[in-house]
Amino acid sequence: MSVNRAQRVDLEVVADLIPPQSRVLDVGSGDGLLLELLQDTKQVDGRGMELSQRGVNECVARGLSVIQGDADKDLEFYPDKGFDFVVLSQTLQATRNPKLVLDELLRIGNRAIVSFPNFGHWRVRLSLFVHGRMPVNDDLPYSWYDTPNIHFCTIRDFVNLCDELGATVEKATALDGNGQKIGLSMPWWFWNFFGQQAVFLLKR
Amino acid sequence: MAALRARKTNNEADQPSSPVLRFGADKPLKLDAGTLLSPFQIAYQTYGTLNDARSNAILVCHALTGDQHVANTNPVTGKPGWWEVLIGPGRIIDTNRFFVICSNVIGGCLGSTGPASINPATGKPYGLDLPVITIRDMVRAQLMLIDHFGIEKLFCVLGGSMGGMQVLQWASSYPERVFSALPIATGARHSSQNIAFHEVGRQAVMADPDWHGGKYFELGKRPEKGLAVARMAAHITYLSEAALHRKFGRNLQDREALTFGFDADFQIESYLRHQGMTFVDRFDANSYLYMTRSMDYFDLAADHGGRLADAFAGTRTRFCLVSFTSDWLFPTEESRSVVHALNAAGASVSFVEIETDRGHDAFLLDEPELFAAINGFIASAARARGLSA
Fold first, then answer.
1. Mean of the per-residue pLDDT values of chain A
2. In this predicted structure, what is the pLDDT of residue B7?
3. Which residues of chain B, if any, have pLDDT below 50?
4. In angstroms, rounded to a whole number, what is the distance separating the alpha carbons of residues B67 and B60?
5. Nearest CA among B199, B203, B205 for reference residue B225
6. What is the DSSP secondary-structure string of A33-83?
7. Which CATH number is B145's domain given?
8. The CATH number of the domain where A44 resides is what?
């Protein structure tokens, strides 16, 4: 359900935010790349939830602790603050109710880490502005009619949602088209224009 | 031949051809029915070697009509052990590496105390004088066996269907004794539909004039017809509509046309009759009543004020649940509700649903995705337990 990318640079950024031996829930764990990375480099107690049964079965066969589940429906079964970190990487835009999902992440985890493709990126704006078409490119490979990504947002939109939910942004990182971090000193509008992906560390 | 094998089953009840552990008056088994069972015995099999740390033991729990002969030739039927595809030297559950234990459940008929065993008070088979046995009673007896081996913590407890119920009961009753749990094609309770099917089976047994209120052994009889019908009905629930149709369709049995009679015209009829007939050779009718009842009574949430998550509160056991898409006896939703409860309890849990049209019985068959899941789960649990490969 996540955005197709050969290189998931955002995973490294996410992993950097997580201290060793943490309890981590990865929502939308896909093929288990992040969980494996965290287990190997951070010795975390990691769990995953993934929508596609194929992804789940592959993860379990590789020894990861993953269940089949839907971020929109199944987060309610987890207890309050059961995890140090709840990660939602490249999945928010594919949920039916992103606000509720984010609210659940903040309830379940002491901290939430959310990464998503920025719909405010200049290439997206260019596609709409010049061609009048929904963007289709390497990072956003789907056409509007077959995309699983039904709730795109921009970095600014996301910051607003965090405000609404009473979440504090402890750390934010924007990655440009080459997967390079954009300088911290840059203002939000700059991030929103040049950041292709964003990674947020949140607390409530 | 059938009669000879039938006699052999009866002998297996008291003098099993596998090892047996006997508990005297000093060690009664406390039953949920409110009475004590004493003396009693547990027949079991083991494979492999218990390591010095006693940390490599795996307990396999058998299903409704299973037995302790999980990975050796069955002494009654002469067929391979019921889970030899999974367990043995070099198999997924490698007996060169693990010490595998499987015991006949209490209430069974292959050597652990059950209705076919001799009641020491009367010198005759218990019949219905044996109190109703629950899944928890079976597990309590297994614990005594595990204690006998001096095993502090089982590396893994696994089983399918009724065996899966025992796995869940183990994890709930003795969380500190279970490092990892692998319940397959099971649920935390028996559904109304499942109780209904079991009741049909029991009524078939009890309607057989040879049943005699359960005292058939004393009269030298066996309610074979009733038990066969019970097995036929149950067997349908272990398969799926798609698999039945794929295998048999409307094919006729050894004939060109319908006979306009009530012989087994169709292959499926012939197949079911065969299943029923071979079953009565190896299983005791009263034991079938007790086994089905134990599953009907199972309701783990009810034992914890209706909240299933409370059955696993504070657990540190690693869980992996497996269900099959075409299993209509224990549909995926039953496993999923256990998964949700384990999530709520903060447990480490994996959950795999396997796509197959082979129904409930898929857990006993060669299912590559099932084996891949078990393999991955066991391997990671072994790493966490510090067991070398």
1. 90
2. 56
3. 1
4. 10
5. B205
6. HHHHHHHHHH--EEEEEES-HHHHHHHHHTT--EEE--TTTSGGGSPTT-E
7. 3.40.50.1820
8. 3.40.50.150
Residue A169 domain-assigned (yes or no): yes
**Residue A79 with chain B: CB contacts under 8 Å:** 344-346
Asked whether the ipTM of the predicted complex exceeds the cut of 0.90, the reply is no
A53: nearest CB among B340, B353, B379: B353
Instruction: State whether B373 and A57 contact (CB < 8 Å).
Output: yes
CA distances from B241 to A25, B199, B237, B246, B326 (A): 38, 22, 9, 9, 9
Chain-centre distance for alpha carbon B329: 14
- Angstrom distances, CA of residue A2 to CA of A24, A140, B333: 19, 10, 26
Are residues B286 and B115 in contact, defined by beta-carbon separation less than 8 angstroms?
yes
User: How far A62 CA lies from chain B's nearest CA (Å)?
Assistant: 5
Task: Give the whole-angstrom CA distance, residue B115 versus residue A44.
Answer: 50
Q: Which residue has the tokens 């547990």?
A: B42
Q: What is the pLDDT of residues A83-98, one digit of tens each?
A: 999 999 989 999 999 9
Residues A195/A175, Cβ–Cβ less than 8 Å: yes
Q: Which of A196, A179, A1 minimizes the C-alpha distance to A98?
A: A1
Token couple for B280: 């009565």
Structural tokens at position B327: 């299993």
pTM of the complete model: 0.92
- B269 and B304 belong to one structural domain: no
Question: Which tokens go with A202?
Answer: 């949140």
- Could you give phi then psi for residue A68, rounded to 5 degrees? -80, 130
Q: B280 and B372: one domain?
A: no
For chain A, what is the domain count?
1
Kindly state the tokens that stand for A66: 């993953």
**B334, B188 in Cβ contact below 8 A?**
yes
Residue A183 Cα, gap to closest chain B Cα (Å): 39
How far, in Å, CA of B281 to CA of B271, rounded?
A: 16
Q: What is the pLDDT of residue A150?
A: 87
Q: Which amino acid, residue B80?
A: P
Q: At residue A179, does pLDDT exceed 90?
A: no
Residue-number span of the structural domain to which B280 is assigned: 195-292
User: What b-and-e string marks burial along B189-204, b requiring 16 or more CB atoms within 10 Å of the CB?
Assistant: bbeeebbebbeebbeb
